[in-house]
Amino acid sequence: MRVLVTGASGYVGQAVVRQLSQTGHDVVALVHRSVVNVPEGVELRRGDVLDGEGLLAAADGVHAAVHLVSLTRIREAFAHPTLYYRVNLGGTLHVLEALARQAEVTGVKPRLVMASTASVYGTPARQPIDETTPVAPENPYAASKVAAEEAIRWQVATGGLGAVVLRIFNIAGAVGELGDYDDTRIITRAVGVAAGHLPSVEINGDGSATRDFVHVNDVARAMVHALEDATPGRFDVYNVGAIPASVAEIVDTVRAVTGREIRVTHRPANPGETQRSVGDNTLIRERLGWSPQQSTLTEMVRGQWEAELLRRHR
């Protein structure tokens, strides 16, 4: 299958490109400005999902897309909500339009997989969170992803597209030698403290707050499973998560893996902060046969630590 991957130069994008290539797909990697190393046989095309006409050209000859481009920082989303809608919804609309145009040319009904977020659920009382949980976005980022999901769902209803939305929990780990450089994420930040270039890990309350984590390579495998199962006229939603871990457990694991002390700054717990947010991945396991292969806390921390050491010595 000839597959366009948007956001191919990003952290998740590089994992998805590698996984698609390894499983025999013909990959077109869409990058904006970045220079990125891709596996042999992968075609690089430059483009921007906000450039509708340019995206039509970039999608020439493809039968499917994995759409990963997204703004994701919640604090920034509150400051710039329209920007988040422009990129997260507007970019998705352009991808849908490009696939529809390709269908007109080739006569082949396309497939689409979009990376969404578990934050669309808000803070539900019922745990673990499954796909029947109503969406209740609490910030512009999550709301923009809900809007993108709905646009896809209505396009699928025309019968001309098969689509899968993956609501992903907290991604961690490394893609080969590439780690996650977003130090607002707890594992990345704790490893950054161990490496000595961040001062401390801030913990709200006693550190028992628990979230769901999944290795980036397991996310990439889920994307491939979803793409291969996508069926014209069908819209599916799956949670992608793997293991629960508390902030305190993460800090302890980083200490154990790195052999370094991790300075911790304790703050009062935020009023109303969810103590536990964990996903139920039963549906994707049963329907697609996916299961996490690398999503242990030790593996995710070790990969990030090794990537951090390599980055610092380049």
From TrEMBL:
UniProt record, GO biological process: galactose catabolic process via UDP-galactose, Leloir pathway
Protein keywords: Isomerase
NAD-dependent epimerase/dehydratase domain residues: 3-241
The keyword Transferase appears for this protein: no
UniProt cross-references to InterPro entries, sorted A to Z: Epimerase_deHydtase, NAD(P)-bd_dom_sf
Gene3D superfamilies: NAD(P)-binding Rossmann-like Domain, UDP-galactose 4-epimerase, domain 1
GO MF term set: isomerase activity
Biological pathway: Carbohydrate metabolism; galactose metabolism
Similarity section: Belongs to the NAD(P)-dependent epimerase/dehydratase family.
Protein name: UDP-glucose 4-epimerase
The organism of origin for this protein: Crossiella cryophila
Organismal lineage: Bacteria, Bacillati, Actinomycetota, Actinomycetes, Pseudonocardiales
